[in-house]
Design a protein that fits this description.
Belongs to the sirtuin family. Class III subfamily. The chain is of the alpha/beta class and 229 residues long. It has helices spanning 26-29, 32-35, 38-43, 45-61, 66-78, 92-96, 154-163, 182-188, 215-228, and strands at residues 3-7, 82-86, 101-103, 106-113, 119-121, 140-144, 166-170, 192-197, 209-212. The chain has a six-stranded parallel beta sheet with strand order 3-2-1-7-8-9, sandwiched between helices.
Length: 229
Amino acid sequence: MKIVILTGAGISAESGLGTFRDAGGLWEKYPIEQVATPEGFAADPALVHGFYNARRANSQSAAPNAAHDALAKLEGKIGENLLIVTQNVDDLHERAGSKSVWHMHGALNRAKCAACEQTWNAPSEMHPDDPCPHCRTPATRPDIVWFGEMPYYMEEIYDRLHQADLFVSIGTSGNVYPAAGFVQEAANAGARTLELNLEPSLGASSFDESRNGPASQIVPEWVDSLLKG
């Protein structure tokens, strides 16, 4: 069985990383236009770097939870037949042991040059005058897909969705495209579809089955039932 799993902020929330729309969370303190757009970075790179330095520190202080561990366990059983596509920019999947993980929105632990577009492992703190190690231009930025930019791996993701026997969405709001359209893409190609979420998402009716509850509870339960089945 070939499985494609989409994960969103809900899977990392129990590790202490706030979801995108949490009241009082990091995103509420700054207008998105200031910290998550190319224009915001051009206007105030110091603010943007400070914002992502804080997010990077927050991510590194967090630990994978039982949901991350369960997906790593599943990959250990079925190997390359499992792909995790994550909207998250933390590395909790990898730290739990998952190897086949595509970060469609980039990653906090990666840096990118706005001039030459080379990428590399990010230091714990980044600053506006940091030179690119490849072209030496002081144009380094977080390797994060900002609003108005194209997510990574899109062509490859659609290829895998078209080959999938099962598509599972975990901890996503169901209203952010293009990821919100993955369920229909997979279903149209003949895959069975399952949503695992704290509560039904806006797109829950598009799934064959929906299970609700904390990710740390329902994801391990699903993985165990799948492996026993």
